[in-house]
Please model this.
Amino acid sequence: MELCHSVTDLPLTEDEKAQIQQRLQVLEIEHHDLDEVIQRLDGTPGQDRLQLQRLKKRKLLLKDQIQKLRDRLIPDIIA
Model:
C-alpha cells in the first residue's frame, strides 16, 4: 500500500522556515497597523461604515493567514 503525502506534510527546510517567518512578520505588522486604524476610525463620528467593514474583513483575513503560517511552522505532534 502506497502512502500519499502532500507537500505540507514534508518537513520544512531552514530556507522555507525563514521565508515563512519573514512573511509572518510582514502580516503581523499589517494586522497591527490595521487594528490601530480601525480603533481610530471606529471612534470617529460619521465614519464611513462600509470602509470600516472592509478594514475589519481584511484584518480577519490577515489573522487567518497568520494562523495558517504559524501552523506550518509548528506542525501537530502525532501522539
Observations:
- Helices lie at 14-42, 49-73.
- The chain has two helices and no strands.
- Residues 33 and 59 are 9 Å apart (CA to CA).
